[in-house]
Amino acid sequence: MTDDRVREQYEAYPYPPRDPRDETKRLIEGSPSHRLEIDHYLFAGQRDWQLPFRALVAGGGTGDGLVMLAQQLADIGCPAEIHYLDLSHASRNIAEARIRTRELRSVTFHAAAIEDLPRLGLGEFDYIDCCGVLHHLADPLAGLRILREALSPEGGIGLMVYGELGRSGVYPMQDLLRMLGENDPAEKRIETAKRLLRQLPATNLFARNPVLGDHLQAGDAGIHDLLLHARDRAYRVGELVALIDAAGLAPTALIEPWRYDPASYLADPKLLTPLNALDRWQRAAAAELLAGNLKTHIAYAVPKGRATLAVADAEDPAAVPVLKDGNGVELARGLRPGGKLTVKADGYEARFPTSTGTGPILALIDGQRSIALIGALLAEQDPKRWTPVHFAAEFAATYRLFNALNRLFLTRAR
Ligand SMILES: C[S@@+](CC[C@H](N)C(=O)[O-])C[C@H]1O[C@@H](n2cnc3c(N)ncnc32)[C@H](O)[C@@H]1O
């Protein structure tokens, strides 16, 4: 399979399809490359965003990660320099129009492949985003090594690759559609795919997989990307961790963390105890096998042997907790004291217990106050209840849950 076929596909069907005019209405936010995640999982929550920040978006496509990162950095006045790389001109045109609509000035566009990066001479990056790209490369490890080489020794990377189990049924469909006319023109192949989708037997693995929706939501580009891709593969957690390791990187997180914890799916201690005894990434691999619905894996990673701490430390009283979706007061209002929190993801519904202190703590999280200040304010309100020991335990429980849910991060005071 040649790279030309991958390029041709993304010239004809830029993915995901986006209309630059929508930039006036909404900002698409996600993972990887949310600024709060980058700060928390790659810069120990200590990044000074007033300093210059060099980022590369490798295989930036129609621009989702690029636009989010550029906008979030502009919003906090970060002197950012962002380089976008993609081999599809059609995708780049869309990404460029989105950036123009937002009047963001930090981005430079390059029409090139990741494999060309060494000869572009772009220098070292503090952060590299590579979302949904490695699994399309002829040699994903070679591609990741190239990105690793372009990282500053104290920098980090955010990756997304397909997850094998959540995509169950996709590859048999791809095989079948190749049998039905591998060399037909793309439009004809899409028609064939639509016809086939209407007639799938109920036992077909793809038909039985409820978590896949790109072929329903993203039009012809979605059908092409999912079922007719020129080249894609999927990873189990263990394979992704091995890929990251072989590229000279060390993972710092899988997002969202709760989905990679067996305790999110099981309560029986007889089953949980041996799984909890596994190392962190094996535990994550077990959670993947249990859940069966992870269709992508999002990971952050840093160069092996990096000198500085990567992940923020919730025991640092000077750290500033910050919520991804804004306001802690509102979040606290929606919580019954000590009630359960329901979270849904790809057909699975988890219920997590909260503690009576969660609401009062969340209500004081504003992205400015440090952990220590929040503890002091609560102690002022009710010194008998909010002793330092009680606060430490309640904060730890609140942090553990909301960080696992990918809603709470640590940063530094601005
Ligand atoms: C599924 S899209 C993902 C786009 C974007 N990162 C996102 O998350 O929305 C994959 C992109 O990778 C690009 N791509 C594929 N192989 C590439 C390569 N070798 N070098 C650079 N880009 C590549 C494609 O052109 C396409 O735009």
From TrEMBL:
Annotated region described as Disordered, given as residue ranges: 1-26
Methyltransferase type domain residues: 58-156
Gene3D superfamilies tied to this protein: Vaccinia Virus protein VP39 (3.40.50.150)
Pfam families from the UniProt entry: Methyltransf_12
SUPFAM superfamilies per the UniProt record, alphabetical: S-adenosyl-L-methionine-dependent methyltransferases
Record's signal peptide: none
Biased composition (Basic and acidic residues): 1-10
Protein name in UniProt: Methyltransferase type 12 domain-containing protein
Species whose genome carries this gene: Hypericibacter terrae
